[in-house]
Amino acid sequence: MTQTQIKDVYYTETYRPQFHYSPEANWLNDPNGMVYYNGEYHLFYQYHPNGTTWGPMHWGHAVSSDLVSWEHLPIALKPDSIGAIFSGSAVVDWQDATGFFNGGSGLVAIFTHAGTYPDSDRSKQVQSIAYSKDNGRTWDLYEGNPVLSDESQLDFRDPKVFWHTETNRWVMVLATGQTISIYSSPDLKEWTFASEFGENQGFHEGVWECPDLFQLPVDGDESASKWVLLVSVGDNADFVEGSRTQYFIGEFDGTTFRNENSEDTTLWLDYGRDNYAGVSWSDIPQSDSRRMYIGWMSNWKYANLTPSEKWRGAMTLPRTLSLASGKRGIRLIQSPVEELKALRSQSILLKENEVIEKKEVVYTPDTNSYELEAEFQLGDASSFGFSLCTSSNEKTIVGYDVKSEKLFLDRTASGQSDFHQDFAAKHNAVLSSKHGKVKLQIFVDWSSVEVFANDGEVAMTDLIFPDRDSRAIELFAKNGQVELVSLTVHPLKKIWK
Ligand code: FRU
């Protein structure tokens, strides 16, 4: 094949995300080891290089200088005599606390080694570390591995580590069955148990996985900061939602996390079905100070069955997390990172101050790779919104139901869905209008929709598998009128060359 032909076909397979990270080939799940160092955002991920379904886990690797385009790098960590490489994190060891870097700095990965006990199939999950002196390109395993084990625990995984300035030590949050255990360490090698959080708190109908713990200002006020604990909850056959991520808000003193809401409060990070196991980047420079997050855009309920070929699995868009107080309390706000604006080309203002009272096609892009920004002023319509990726027999509806104050995403007729009975579904989230207005920012890629409503108050992330020719964008208002204050479409450039 000539170079031009390779360019033409690269990342053009059916359903291939055009502006989301996906591996060139084979299976991907959780994001791992996200860290910023020497001008690069690292994204490691759960990777099975020998197939398009989950298998012996490796850490795949990609880097980006701008969170928009990604460069694929060789596999970073692969299974060894201790086990496969499950999820974990990475940090910059600035002060050489480990002694790995001859007084300089470098990257340390902290991850779960998943093996079995000798002479049995009983799963053995322990925590190990590896270090890199060349910006994550090659890794050495620490000879003292594992650094943390506990034979009484079967589900003992997904360490997320950060430096806790006030107590001058490293803190690890680890998923331990139905709780999160917290450990601390002076050097990333010796770990001491500090406390356990979670019994009777939040949602427990699935194994707890992939925690993250970080501090964020409330309403931008540093003096009113709170701690946020993310906890992903695994699939359970009794719940159509499948695997999803909850969060807790409270205080952390270096030892103990205290939930500020009642123990039966469950807060969901995303109201779609396809945002799981997400965590945040470590070591973002203070001059930036954003807490940035990425999730795995799939769901354990059907992750192994989605209809892509060659590769399977992609990440959500990178998002900035913040906290805002509202009438229901303090909530997590998510917005796509600013850098993504660089993907916009030839933005078109489709409508301004127009009354909508029926269904109409407003635009048909050349390809399903775009961002929509819309602002509505409520009128007497009972519901309104968009039908996206539309053709005579397919549509994905993103709408707002005025009476129940609910944002909804309906993918029942979105395209291929017969690979799992629970895929074709409509889901919704409570969303109040603000001064009678509802704002929607929607990213559509070849096999996904991400909705950020009212500046990130509600996020909904869903996979869809429409035909390439289902492309019309329709506007609708039912049983009355709604005013469309403005509607802009930004066709988005592909990130793969
Ligand atoms: C979450 C998870 C983690 C585990 C990894 C294995 O999706 O189940 O708990 O480390 O995936 O690939």
Characterise this structure.
Strand 21 and strand 22 form a beta hairpin. The protein has 497 residues and is mostly beta strands. 1% of the residues lie in helices and 50% in strands. It is built from 1 helix and 34 strands. The strands form 7 sheets. The protein has a 6-stranded antiparallel β-sheet with strand order 23-34-25-30-31-32, with no helix packed on it. The chain folds into 2 domains: 336 residues, Glycosyl hydrolase domain, family 43 (Tachylectin-2, Chain A); 148 residues, Exo-inulinase, domain 1 (Jelly Rolls, Sandwich), CATH 2.60.120. The site of beta-D-fructofuranose has 12 residues, from strand 1, strand 5, strand 9 and strand 13.
Summarize it.
The chain is mainly β. It has one helix and 34 strands.
- Provide the structure class: mainly beta
CATH architecture of the largest domain: 5 Propeller
Instruction: Report the β-strand fraction as a percent range.
Output: over 45%
The residue-averaged pLDDT reads 97
Regions with pLDDT < 50 over 5+ consecutive residues? none
Task: Please write out the topology.
Blueprint (H helix, E strand, L loop, with lengths): L2 H7 L16 E12 L2 E9 L9 E7 L6 E7 L6 E10 L12 E11 L6 E10 L7 E2 L14 E9 L4 E8 L2 E7 L6 E6 L10 E11 L2 E13 L10 E9 L4 E3 L7 E2 L7 E5 L10 E6 L14 E2 L6 E8 L2 E8 L11 E9 L3 E4 L6 E8 L5 E8 L5 E6 L4 E5 L15 E5 L6 E9 L2 E6 L4 E6 L8 E7 L3 E10 L6
Parallel strand pairs: 1-20
Antiparallel strand pairs: 1-2, 2-3, 3-4, 5-6, 6-7, 7-8, 9-10, 10-11, 11-12, 13-14, 14-15, 15-16, 15-17, 18-19, 19-21, 21-22, 23-34, 24-33, 25-30, 25-34, 26-27, 26-33, 27-28, 28-29, 30-31, 31-32
The structure holds beta-D-fructofuranose (FRU).
